[in-house]
Amino acid sequence: MDIYHNSRDIEFRKPFGASPCGGNIELSLYAPKADYAVLRLYADEAGEGLIDPVSFENGTYTWRFSAPMDDLVLWYFFVLSIDDNTYCYGNNRDSLG
């Protein structure tokens, strides 16, 4: 199963590193066999939310959104549907991105 996102690669996360409050963020996920994918965002202070992709092109889903105006840390992972199965794709156990 081909699924790929690298939080340290500008092709998958723009901007790299911290984003200013209210700044634009773009995340991408390569998942050509997924029937659908959503982005799950979570912040301790702000709760959680699901965001639909803005595009799917050449096997890559893309999301664009604005960072919250509050100074907080956002966590995220992707939820995918492939052949009637649901998968969560996120950070590895070593928290290396």
Describe this structure in words.
This protein is mainly beta and 97 residues long. The protein contains no helices and eight strands. Strand 7 (75-82) and strand 8 (85-89) form a beta hairpin. The model has no long low-confidence stretch (mean pLDDT 90).
Output the number of helix runs. 0
How far is it from the N-terminal to the C-terminal residue, by CA?
20 Å
Largest sheet: 4 strands, antiparallel
Mean pLDDT score: 90
Structural class: mainly beta
State the low-pLDDT regions, or none.
Answer: none
The amount of beta strand, in percent, is over 45%
Question: Any chance you could write out the topology, listing elements then pairs?
Answer:
Elements: E1 13-14, E2 24-30, E3 36-43, E4 47-51, E5 55-57, E6 60-66, E7 75-82, E8 85-89
Antiparallel strand pairs: 1-2, 2-6, 3-4, 3-7, 5-6, 7-8
Which key terms come to mind for this protein?
0% helix, 8 strands, four-stranded antiparallel β-sheet, mainly beta, 97 residues
Summarize the structure.
This protein has 97 residues and is mostly beta strands. Helix content is 0%, strand content 46%.
